[in-house]
Amino acid sequence: MLQNQRLLEQIKNSFSQMDKIILLITYALVTLSTIFVYSATRKSGFVGKNIMWIVIGTILLIIISFIDYREVKKYTRHIYGICIVLLLVVRFLGKKTLGAQRWISIGPFQLQPSEFVKIAIIIMIAYRIAQEYKDGINNLKDIVTAILPVSPLILLILIQPDLGTTLITVAAYVFMIFLYGANMKPIWIIGTVILLSIYPVYRFVLSKYQKTRVETFLRPEKDEKGTGWHVTQSKISVGAGGVLGKGVLQGSQSRLEFLPEAQTDFIFSVLSEELGFAGSVLTLLLYFGLIFRTMRITRVIHDEFGKLLLYGISGVFFMHVIVNVGMTIGLVPVTGKPLLFMSYGGSSFLAAFLMIGLVESVKIHAD
Asked: Where does the UniProt entry say this protein principally localizes (predicted)?
């Protein structure tokens, strides 16, 4: 009886220390997701599964948040091994769809391991930097060696091929070391060299097919009924919303099935058409509010591992917003990356809830 009372008190104490605004934003986003997944599909089955993932994700969030995040440091080798196994299973036994082999079939469900491996990479990098680079990341050698141990995982994601997740993971790493106070001069030099080499590579290295892909991204109207179809229809959806939108369930692009993958890759296009510019801005403010609140926690804790973990998670959310929203308006190539907490999909939903659980765990348990 006494043990039960202590457990109950511990749960109450943990809940009282959670960041309630982060939770409020999270459930505002998943509510919007449920509404617009239905609007995009008009099928109750999709809504039912969406709600199921929200429930499972909530349970995962609660469990993770009540466990001290520092305990994960004891199991980094085990996590690494599990990641390798999962990615090798995907490589040799995974389901291939649209030219990419990223999923494992588990009964009626499909698991995308890279969504979870991405988080594991952030955890392992945060642990390595906190342990091995207490004097800071001061040069190119430090920048490379800090990420080197997880490079096999990144390479296995890249060859699926999943360039989007690879870029998001690497960008999150850059986000981490930048906020950690690393000497970023080597990164700026490398970035400048890459920018200066874009045209020569396009002009003299790329094949005709690859040049066509680049040109289609830059001018999708050149092949509106082919490779430019997705972006063209998405831009029509976003533009059709005007300032206040057509109203929920009134979007014609998704209802008439002009917009491909409306419930997943282009869920933001559906929202933009139905809620307009005002609704789009409000949704983006929710995401940046989530990132801001996560970053705010780093100001009141002293544990370097916890800070780095929050930097990495903030970077992941930020990059998913930039890549997905940029994709819908033609600013970045179509990569199939979901808008976390909005796009339909079990793996991305659970991964997002897991990250929020880690954020809350840091808030509750960090010194």
From this structure: membrane
